[in-house]
Amino acid sequence: MDAEMTEQTSTTGPAGLVGVSTEPGSKKPDPIVVADNITRTFGGLTAVDVDHVEIQRGAITALIGPNGAGKTTFFNLLTGFDQPNSGSWTLDGKSLKGVAPYKVARLGMVRTFQLTKVLAKLTVIENMRLGATGQKGERFWAAPFKFLWGKQEDEVTKKADELLARFLLDKKREDFAGSLSGGQRKLLEMARALMVDPELVMLDEPMAGVNPALKQSLLGHVKSLRDEGRTVLFVEHDMDMVRDISDWVVVMAQGKIVAEGTPESVMADQRVIDAYLGAHHDTDLSELDEERLEAEVEAEIAQEEDAK
Ligand SMILES: Nc1ncnc2c1ncn2[C@@H]1O[C@H](COP(=O)(O)OP(=O)(O)OP(=O)(O)O)[C@@H](O)[C@H]1O
């Protein structure tokens, strides 16, 4: 990360959120992402209908809401894995409309998702090298395209090894990703995302499938992303994680932003209790159906391949 990025001002990061309005769609002093009038329908269902949202730079923002609220669809739209029916959004003031996921990644916005069976067939170090290309599927990365990163192979491998050491995965370097535990896969995903040195890291359910022993370590790694000046936006059902590490929480229900604020204020907000916590208070949904998540990821990758 360059010096400009890590330089903090009082309007950047968690400090800048002090006194920010808790009305849905409130303005932030230093937004890295600004989205307007984003809608996405599937047949007769409106999955996302976000009037306005701003994500504060250098802070950790949680996106929460009941199942089917539209969180993952919103992630897909922001990162180019899906196209909205309407709306516009920017990263650092630059429009991302119609920009392919790997270009979005190279512009500084990277997302993680549940590891797929496809990536499970690659070794840990191969997965890391894949990260250097942005977010391409295995088919793109395969032999004919190796020349794209071949010249920089040494540099890429050095960076990959540094990240593997940081995430305590260096001993797993030559293992297939499929042999890793759920938590180790999450760490690998996070490490891989950092290969492009992103300014914004988006994590989709980072705690799902992670055993309690690795949860603390994962939390520490997420905080370290913020400590080095990055912005984190994550979708999560694990309320303990949301409470522990979020500087700001945005709540979605039925496609709309219904509340936002600090974790304390959001969890005491009647609109949130009605929309979400009433049904899911403190439930740990980390046992979410793995197969469903994997199917979602495979669909995302297929969409990306089709878009090429
Ligand atoms: N490709 C699709 N085709 C049809 N409907 C879809 C598609 N993707 C999502 N939906 C629907 O859009 C709505 C929002 O789904 P989404 O997965 O974004 O919610 P979510 O908040 O991420 O839920 P969860 O917490 O369960 O992951 C749901 O009703 C879902 O069934």
Summary of the model, kept short:
The chain is built from 14 helices and ten strands. The chain has a domain at 3-109 and 200-307: P-loop containing nucleotide triphosphate hydrolases (Rossmann fold).
How would you describe this structure to a colleague?
The chain is of the alpha/beta class and 308 residues long. The chain has a domain at 3-109 and 200-307: Rossmann fold (3-Layer(aba) Sandwich). The chain has helices spanning 3-6, 71-78, 101-106, 117-120, 124-131, 138-141, 147-150, 153-166, 182-193, 212-227, 239-245, 263-267, 270-280, 290-307, and strands spanning 31-42, 45-56, 60-64, 86-91, 94-95, 109-112, 200-204, 231-235, 248-253, 256-261. The strands form two sheets. A six-stranded mixed β-sheet has the order 6-7-8-3-9-10, sandwiched between helices. Strands 2-1-4-5 form a four-stranded antiparallel β-sheet, covered by helices on one side. The chain is globular and about 50 Å long. It starts with a helix and ends with a helix. Bound molecules: adenosine-5'-triphosphate. Residues 42, 45, 47, 65, 67-73 line the site of adenosine-5'-triphosphate. Residues 33-279 form the ABC transporter domain.
Percent strand equals 15-25%
Number of H/I helices:
14
Bound small molecules, which ones? adenosine-5'-triphosphate
DSSP summary, beta strand count? 10
How far from one another are the termini? 29 Å
Secondary-structure class: alpha/beta
Gross morphology is: globular
What is the residue-mean pLDDT, rounded to a whole number?
83
Please describe the biggest sheet, giving its number of strands, its sense, and whether it closes into a barrel.
6 strands, mixed
CATH superfamily of one domain: P-loop containing nucleotide triphosphate hydrolases
CATH architecture of one domain: 3-Layer(aba) Sandwich
Q: Oligomeric state of the chains? A: single chain
Which fold does the CATH topology of one domain refer to?
Answer: Rossmann fold
Please estimate the helix content: 25-40%
Backbone CA Rg: 18 Å
Low-confidence stretches: 135-149, 280-289
Provide the succession of SSEs.
HEEEHEEHEHHHHHHEHEHEEHHH
- Strands of the biggest beta sheet: in what spatial order? 6-7-8-3-9-10
Any idea of the CATH class of one domain?
Alpha Beta
InterPro entries: AAA+_ATPase, ABC_AA/LPS_Transport, ABC_transporter-like_ATP-bd, ABC_transporter-like_CS, BCA_ABC_TP_C, P-loop_NTPase
Organism: Nocardioides turkmenicus
Keywords: ATP-binding, Nucleotide-binding, Transport
Protein name: ABC transporter ATP-binding protein
